[in-house]
């Protein structure tokens, strides 16, 4: 930070000094040295005043008058007595030059002359050019800084999307080159940790399958001796298997982000297909209102996973009713899934999208789940520039609203290739 401030101070200080010095030189040579009629006449009057000692020596074109012929102002009279050349103006705005001859009462008057040109426009033009040059120098100083900041933005976006192949090329002339290098080292470390975490989850999940398989075999051998105890232990083993499957599925999502297959498909038909599957194994009252022929440009497989998780979540926690609504609102496709369950408190609504977080603290087997379903929903929607919000349903429970960009929205197609 100190380096940044010192660099900015030096750039501004040196720029102002150079601009002021250059402006002063140009101003003197362009404005004050520019010839005009009045300035030349003033120089001639000075020479003429010093070269003549009598009125008869004046050229015939020079008008002469007495000091009493004009009502001079006191300061003008004082200037004449001191031998200065004074300037007066006619009603037409032309200048007259008057001076005393040899200290007497006789006065010589030259003119009329055109007045000196107004330098006000040139003055403001110089100021404008000076500020423009200063702004240009600041832009040149800011350009490497801006490029480094854009690189930091790009790297953070890559990390947020799970892309681990990051690279930064800090500018040598940037005031934050050290910060950029440190950020690159940190981002590389974070990417390495994320990669290690994925490998660890996969390795642990796979390695756990072998002892679980041995446990299931041993329990099957003991089933005849103590059926009740063996049944309880078998349920625990099944729960561990489900947890491992969920962890593997969530770990695969981190890798899947790099191989999404986008194409157009009928989202209305996809939602209806997931509802039909749910009705085969669920007895709750489903109220469905779907707008037909809604087209999406996305990865159909993972969007189907999102819809499946939201529907299963509503049926799991709803008491008897589930309402499903699909519509297009402006440039977004909205899927509303609401139930008549206990709902979710406002302070818990952001927490439920984190992995392994459940509103039900008891984690009883009756409700099931490991807190990964909504985390998967959030991750997939993030890939598709979508989001999910939780509100209070009119049925009394929770209302999940999924938003996805419509295929009619140009922003939804940006940076994607149609497969």
UniProtKB/TrEMBL annotation:
Its main location: membrane. Residues 203-408 form the Histidine kinase domain. Signal peptide: none annotated. It is a multi-pass membrane protein. SUPFAM superfamilies: ATPase domain of HSP90 chaperone/DNA topoisomerase II/histidine kinase, Homodimeric domain of signal transducing histidine kinase. InterPro entries: 2C_sensor_his_kinase (IPR050980), HATPase_C_sf (IPR036890), HATPase_dom (IPR003594), His_kinase_dom (IPR005467), HisK_dim/P_dom (IPR003661), HisK_dim/P_sf (IPR036097), Sig_transdc_His_kin-like_C (IPR004358). It catalyses: ATP + protein L-histidine = ADP + protein N-phospho-L-histidine. Keywords: ATP-binding, Cell membrane, Kinase, Membrane, Nucleotide-binding, Phosphoprotein, Transferase, Transmembrane, Transmembrane helix. CDD domains: HisKA. The chain crosses the membrane at residues 124-142. One of its GO terms (cellular component) is plasma membrane. It is an enzyme of class 2 (transferase). Pfam families: HATPase_c (PF02518), HisKA (PF00512). GO terms for molecular function: ATP binding; phosphorelay sensor kinase activity. Its EC number is 2.7.13.3. The keyword Kinase applies. It is found in: Cell membrane. It comes from the Bacteria. This is histidine kinase. The lineage of its organism: Bacteria, Pseudomonadati, Pseudomonadota, Gammaproteobacteria, Alteromonadales. The gene is rstB.
